[in-house]
Design a protein that fits this description.
It is a single chain. Helix 8 packs parallel to helix 9, helix 9 runs parallel beside helix 11 (310-323) and helix 12 (342-355) runs parallel beside helix 13. By secondary structure, this protein is α/β, with parallel strands linked by helices. The two termini are 34 Å apart. The strands form 6 sheets. Strands 2-1-3-4-5-6 form a 6-stranded parallel β-sheet, with helices on both faces. Strands 17-18-19-21-20 form a 5-stranded mixed β-barrel. The chain has a 3-stranded parallel β-sheet with strand order 7-10-13, with helices on both faces. It is built from 13 helices and 21 strands. It has helices at 33-46, 74-94, 105-118, 134-142, 158-161, 193-196, 205-217, 245-252, 273-281, 298-303, 310-323, 342-355, 382-405; strands at 23-29, 51-53, 62-67, 100-104, 124-126, 148-150, 175-179, 181-182, 201-202, 222-226, 234-236, 242-244, 260-264, 288-290, 328-335, 359-364, 411-419, 425-429, 435-439, 448-456, 461-470. Bound molecules: 5'-deoxyadenosine (5AD) and iron/sulfur cluster. 5'-deoxyadenosine (5AD) binds next to strand 15.
Length: 472
């Protein structure tokens, strides 16, 4: 299912300003958390070449556009952003500065040749598996007239060649993403990920644990393990055997100071008994699981090539909740997959009513060139998709509100990560990722503290600190 993607408009992340960089680097990131992680790692690779982050493109000697291809008019969005960057490049040229423009990510992978043809001012096009080769590409691009395209899936694993990450990728260094797995072999009918991110591969255990320890040593308290199919993780262990995600989670839970572990995104088919048991055994494993189901109709699940039925999903949820009774679920849904009838859609609504989701992302099916469903007959008309999406989102919104309402009156550990918007406020996250605000001392930032929730606001919870003693 890929990773959780922000809906339109895409998120943009700029790196913090650096006062006097030798060479300015500006990275624009669209799409999923893995792109956020990748953007930071591209920064790590380029640092030895003297590149340091700047927060405005017109100060940048190199601009990277890290793109997302999962839904909607991905390529058009890239070309219109490139149009703006072209003006920046021209203005800098008039002022006597050269600028390298690179397009990375999944649109680069899928439409690299077209980008080079349509945007002659783009210097480098690189797919997600080639980031470790960036320094060499920069050198080639710097030669007069050199344009570079690298969208192969190289034989070597990029993680073996990337330098150690310098710093966690999120502000405040309390929470961080850590990519442990990439790519996907599932080939769902609608999805571009197997084509843009390539075959599934997992990082070795030793390298994951080393990166996690470095993060914790630098102050990180919560790590979110990332992978397009994260629970298909099968990394080589220190003993030469293959470890699954459950075994990795137990090892991570032994790192002192790491208080929270999350992972995303999981496929129902890869949710094995060992991982369910890990949710029972490990308090660090947060009771909030993103487990996309996409549809509640067996017919559509089959057409989507998901490899499970609606009842198998129900049963999986039951077993997870047996292991960890406070476990809450989030999911992704697609309405209007080719062939979806009213009855199929009603089956999705029924699955939602039976399961109860704390959070969900739902999308209208959008044909992705080159995927099996894009060429299928029986495409669903736009207005039908619209009305189904509206009905589904209304139900999901009710469930989300109901879930948040159950928090009021409960006590729960909150990991405080910063100050709040109002004076005297500090803010953090509940185990279920809800933002929580309290009146409290900034000295609590970085700690997990028991909070009693007193109110539900639109998109957050308000509470009071129960005891100013670190939880656990
Ligand atoms: N159309 C609509 N939604 C899609 N997703 C992936 N591909 C498509 C598509 N072609 C959704 C899925 C996935 C999430 C990341 O994006 O629900 O889980
Ligand atoms: Fe997820 Fe299916 Fe896409 Fe793989 S092919 S990333 S399992 S939606």
């Amino acid at each position: 299912m890929g990773l959780r993607h922000s809906g339109a408009p895409a998120i943009m992340t700029a790196h913090p300003v650096n006062a006097h960089p030798a060479r300015g680097l500006h990275v624009i990131t669209w799409g999923c958390q893995m792109n956020v992680y990748d953007s930071a790692r591209m920064g790590d690779v380029l640092r030895p070449l003297g590149y340091a982050p700047v927060d405005a493109p017109d100060q940048a000697d190199m601009i990277i556009l890290n793109t997302c291809h999962i839904r909607d008019r991905a390529a058009e969005k890239v070309f219109s952003e490139l149009g703006r960057l072209r003006l920046v490049k021209e203005a800098r040229k008039e002022a006597g500065h050269s600028t390298i423009i690179a397009v990375a990510g999944c649109v680069a992978q899928a439409e690299g040749e077209e980008i080079l043809a349509r945007a002659p001012y783009v210097d480098i096009v690189l797919g997600p598996q080639t980031y470790h080769r960036l320094p060499e590409m920069v050198a080639r691009a710097a030669r007069a007239g050199g344009r570079v395209i690298e969208t192969e899936f190289p034989a070597e694993q990029k993680f073996d060649f990337l330098p150690e990450s310098e710093a966690p990728q999120t502000p405040g260094n309390l929470t961080a993403f850590l990519t442990i797995q990439e790519g996907c072999d599932k080939f769902c009918s609608f999805c571009v990920v197997p084509y843009t991110r390539g075959a599934e591969s997992s990082r070795p255990v030793v390298s994951v644990l080393a990166e996690a320890r470095r993060m914790v040593a630098s102050g990180v308290r919560e790590i979110s393990l990332l992978g397009q199919n994260v629970n298909a993780y099968h990394g080589e262990g220190p003993d030469g055997t293959i470890w699954g995600l459950a075994r990795l989670a137990y090892a991570l839970a032994e790192i002192p100071g790491l208080v929270r572990i999350r992972y995303t995104t999981s496929h129902p088919r890869d949710m094995d008994d060992a991982l369910i048991a890990a949710h029972r055994d490990l308090p660090q494993l947060m009771p909030f699981l993103h487990l996309p189901v996409q549809s509640g109709s067996d017919r559509i699940l089959r057409a989507m090539n998901r490899g499970h039925t609606a009842d198998e999903y129900r049963d999986l949820v039951r077993r997870l909740r047996e292991a960890r009774p406070d476990l809450a679920l989030s999911s992704d849904f697609i309405v209007g997959h080719p062939g979806e009838s009213d009855a199929d859609f009603e089956a999705t609504m029924e699955l939602v009513r039976d399961t109860g989701f704390a959070l969900a992302y739902s999308f209208k099916y959008s044909p992705r060139p080159g995927t099996p469903a894009a060429g299928a007959g029986m495409q669903v008309p736009e207005d039908v998709k619209d009305s189904r999406l509206q009905a589904l989102q209304q139900l999901l919104r009710q469930q989300q509100d109901a879930f948040n309402q159950t928090m009021v009156g409960q006590s729960m550990p909150v990991l405080f990560t910063g100050t709040g918007r109002k004076p005297g406020q500090i803010a953090g996250r509940s185990p279920w990722l809800q933002p929580v605000h309290v009146q409290g001392s900034p000295s609590l930032i970085g700690q997990e503290i028991m909070v009693r929730i007193t109110e539900r606001l639109t998109n957050s919870l308000g509470g009071i600190v129960e005891e100013e003693k670190e939880y656990a």
